[in-house]
């Protein structure tokens, strides 16, 4: 049993992701332009487009990070995909799910 939340339809989601044949493909210039614009607009240290596989978070586009993937267990997006609406984290330091997360510590 993973130590992070999963969806009731996790196998279906993973199958759909696999069928897209997008994971581990080359960077996309259009997506890179979007993440760069978003990073600049929000004056953020990083901006990512993440795809969540069974055991990792892979970055289809990334600005401000040198790594191309992280373990799923430290992914903020693992929590985002389990939400019905949006995942809003007003203060990651105060949120026990993220306060000791290496990705949060990066900032």
**So what's the oligomer here?**
single chain
Helix/strand-derived category reads alpha+beta
Tell me, rounded to a whole number, the average pLDDT.
Answer: 91
Instruction: Report low-confidence residues grouped into runs of 5 or more.
Output: none
Protein name: GAF domain-containing protein
InterPro entries: GAF, GAF-like_dom_sf
Domain GAF: 28-103
Organism: Paraglaciecola mesophila
Your description of this structure?
The protein is an alpha+beta fold and 107 residues long. It has one domain (10-106). 32% of the residues lie in helices and 16% in strands. It has helices at 10-20, 29-41, 76-80, 102-106, and strands spanning 47-52, 56-63, 69-71. The protein is globular and about 35 Å long. InterPro entries: GAF (IPR003018), GAF-like_dom_sf (IPR029016). Residues 28-103 form the GAF domain. This is GAF domain-containing protein.
Give a quick rundown of the structure.
By secondary structure, the protein is of the alpha+beta class. It is built from four helices and three strands, in the order ααβββαα. The chain has one domain.
Quickly list its features.
107 residues; alpha+beta; 3-stranded antiparallel sheet; 4 helices; 3 strands; globular
Topology:
Blueprint: H1 10-20, H2 29-41, E1 47-52, E2 56-63, E3 69-71, H3 76-80, H4 102-106
Antiparallel strand pairs: 1-2, 2-3
């Amino acid at each position: 049993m993973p130590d992070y939340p999963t969806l009731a339809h996790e196998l279906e989601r993973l199958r759909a992701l696999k069928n897209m044949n997008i994971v581990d493909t080359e960077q996309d210039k259009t997506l890179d332009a979007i993440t760069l614009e978003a990073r600049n607009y929000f004056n953020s240290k990083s901006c990512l487009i993440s795809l969540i596989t069974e055991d990792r978070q892979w970055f289809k586009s990334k600005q401000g990070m040198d790594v191309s993937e992280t373990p799923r267990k430290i992914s903020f997006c693992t929590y985002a995909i389990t939400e019905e609406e949006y995942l809003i984290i007003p203060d990651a330091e105060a949120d026990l799910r993220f306060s000791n997360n290496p990705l949060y510590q990066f900032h």
